[in-house]
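// run 5 | inverse folding | seed 20
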């Protein structure tokens, strides 16, 4: 009986959270609002993380008197993990 009540509570919680998400994430992307949405969309988590990485690279490049773009390229080219990901992406 306790498993049934636990599953019921989980389903109720899921339904409530799904309803809240559906209500808050409602987007009308018609012709009238499409252009406005592109200009004011929220940054995704990946975009936020990438912005932080770029900021850190810029600070490090200032400390060592280097070009931030060149430093970024060197980091990407010299990282073994990224090389593995690059090879995997090319085979996929």
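// decoded
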């Amino acid at each position: 009986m306790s498993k049934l009540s636990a599953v019921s509570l989980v389903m109720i919680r899921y339904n409530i959270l799904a309803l809240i998400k559906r209500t808050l994430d409602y987007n009308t992307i018609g012709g009238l609002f499409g252009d406005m949405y592109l200009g004011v969309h929220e940054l995704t988590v990946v975009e936020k993380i990438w912005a932080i990485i770029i900021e850190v690279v810029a600070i490090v490049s200032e400390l060592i008197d280097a070009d931030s773009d060149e430093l970024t390229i060197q980091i990407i080219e010299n990282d073994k993990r990224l090389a593995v990901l690059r090879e995997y992406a090319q085979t996929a």
